[in-house]
């Protein structure tokens, strides 16, 4: 909240509102017994482990995952030691190209390959653990892109994770993974359904040819700066809100877009003036420096047309953007903008895009992106039980919910008519495995 998404994770207050509104109770542990989540009680290697939103950064001075790295490393070696785990799926936001303070040159004058190598060096223990699983060959390790690693190329992922399986769409920044022997399962990050986090290959092409960065990228850069500055009082004042007096749908949508930016800037203030060109890019086709005012819709004259510098016309291209991003069930633009910061919107899209979609055969769907680990069961379009799970996050401080260090384990059913497929959610907090939620079904 990728969304983001993954926006979307950093709109923390609105995420919390969405969470409470959903009345979901899965964030609280339901079992604190010492257990081995990577054992099925037998000898078959059939379990699938899903983690996401690790957010490995190139600089631990501001990376979101620093204190939890050692715990993650230990959990990964437990996965490796299991004789029952068949697959490890990393469902997006593994490498973080977004959470970099706005004033910092992300690549430090080099390129993306150098950037990911700096990530590997800064997070050597975790990277080594993942590579050891890949190299041993007993467990298939699959990576699915998220919004924070949206533009990181397959070549650069393989540069630090040689031999990793990458589940990608033909378009950069998206992917969905379905294991070959479990066609009812879909794992993706979830950011393709988020207005602020889904790839945007339409906007800003005159400024940054070929870019796919959505507006959530710029928000995250500002949010990272806010946390580094530990700013409590903004260095500037939001301009007067533009007024749509024409009743034109496009103008009304742009005003909704402004309202979300207004909330974000006020909630995560920075010391800088709003006209200061302090957002350093040099990423994905962007070469200039930009200000907060470049992102905010404005009126040049009172009562005039509402316009915006960056993402000009974004409110009119969401339908086209969804088509390019392979969104099967259309999400109205007004809904997409208004709900882009709500965790509940991602949960609902899992249901709408898969379970209620008559063209979908998926019965189990796993997203990351929102950082809110949970399991929700519902019926699909045929009245059959279906299970959605969110794999949570591994960042140090999860403002969405107290829970972090989350992972999902799926144990498939067997040929016995009484056997079920189990979906279980765990946390590794304090390096103790605790089961948070579980559900099961037979398909």
Description:
It is a single chain. It contains ten helices and 16 strands. The longest helix has 19 residues. A seven-stranded mixed beta sheet has the order 4-3-2-1-14-15-16, covered by helices on one side. It has a five-stranded mixed beta sheet with strand order 5-6-11-13-12, covered by helices on one side. Strands 7-8 form a two-stranded antiparallel ribbon. Helices cover 26% and strands 16% of the residues. It has a domain of 100 residues. β9 and β10 form a beta hairpin. It starts with 11 loop residues before the first helix and ends with a strand.
Structure in a nutshell:
The strands form four sheets. This protein has a seven-stranded mixed sheet, with helices on one face. The protein has a five-stranded mixed sheet with strand order 5-6-11-13-12, covered by helices on one side.
